[in-house]
Amino acid sequence: MGLICIDLFTTLDGVAQAPGGPGEDADGGFAFGGWQAPLIDEVVGEQIDSGMAGMDALLLGRRTYDIFAAYWPKADGSIAELFNRLPKYVASRQARNLEWANSTLLGPDVSSAVRELRGRHAEVHVIGSLDFVQTLFAQRLFDRLTLWVYPILLGGGKKVFADGVVPTNLRLVEPVVSSPKGAVQLRYVLADGTPGVGDMSAGAPSG
Question: In this structure, is residue 76 part of a structural domain?
Fold first, then answer.
């Protein structure tokens, strides 16, 4: 059974909208497109490269696919070579003409299609695609979640955990590493069950 891996860049207050550039996603009048660019460094770059080592397919939402399809076929380097070569699956509610090589539109039953991808690939990565990610969170259709958390607060914008998240346990699977510019990589896997509760006052010291 293959893995569905979600990779997201987020601010400390959970905003993950348009990290890459000003034209990426201006929904809601978002004015901070490209907020990640001043904070990227070699450590984050190495973490991203390392995390892609096992990737054998991309799963993208419509907006992220359009951004990637306009950029990566013209780009050079190892990431461009990888992305251009890999199978790419697109979640979209509308029929689309997918011109980027090796691209396939998922059927109308996205949940079933994602489950089928687990049987077809070893490691499918969802990069960005924030609106689509909400569907995966709501249906627990993911196996690994990697967050790069940056030391800035934006106050408004699309959040990593928006409406539709269900109570879920996660388990940290790698040591937390901070980059020179303060980005922290957090890598989790989906864990069984739902969050438990307790009463901390029962064990509180008296006096």
Answer: yes
pLDDT in tens, the chain (207 residues): 899 999 999 999 999 999 988 988 899 999 999 999 999 999 999 999 888 889 999 999 988 999 999 999 999 998 999 999 999 999 987 767 899 999 999 988 888 999 999 999 999 999 988 989 999 999 999 999 999 999 999 999 999 998 778 999 999 999 998 999 999 999 999 999 999 999 988 766 665
Is 138 a domain residue? Answer: yes
Q: Which domain holds residue 92?
A: 3-185
Quick one: tokens of 156? 């408004």
Q: How far is 23 from 74, CA to CA, in rounded Å?
A: 18
The verdict on residue 202 lying in a domain is no
Count of domains observed in the chain: 1
